[in-house]
Amino acid sequence: MKRADKAIRIVEMLEELYPETPVPLDHTNTFELLVAVLMSAQTTDLKVNEVTPALFAKANTPEQMSKLPVQTILEDIRQVGLAPTKAKNIRRLSELLVERHDGVIPDSFEALEALPGVGHKTAGVVLAQAFDIPAFPIDTHIHRLAARWGLSNGTTVERTERDLKAIFPKELWNKLHLQIIFFGREYCPARNHDLTQCPICSWTATKKRIAQEAKR
Fold first, then answer.
1. Residues 9-30: pLDDT tens digits?
2. Which of 97, 106, 163, 199 could form a disulfide with 62 if both were Cys (CB 3.0 to 4.6 A apart)?
């Protein structure tokens, strides 16, 4: 099956499974979303949602967060991976948001990626979910599924992003990003996954891919 035909059917299936795509990270404003996405690296969304209420009760704007000691931030987020580094980045990016952007979250990749701890994926999530700017942030679920489904060769996340943007219509990118993540979590785990029984892998994966994963 051609990739274009796969894409059409995948969109139809994901839309049926996940017509609504709530953002998994709890937040009440764009700054909270930015901080939560930054914290989600190497940590589950569930864990992030457990620790952010205490932090955001103390500070949920760049101005407020820039005045908190790094140690205070660290105490609230200690349970997430790489907490010491993330605490320093949260404090510093808050200072820079005040200094460079008057406390307003910028709506461009260039400005967001210039902030400490904000990589391309984090910037993409914020632009997609807060500003409705088309992006296709690639997390581990999307990277894995794109390779399994034969939509990308899976060599790098950059390659996966380019391939998926070329296959799917731009107006669908933001919703598909979340739909694929939801599908990965529910149906398509990284380990002990029988591709022949998966709702999508069963008809998209090549025989070679199925054999490779069966050996793991």
1. 999 999 999 999 999 999 999 9
2. 97
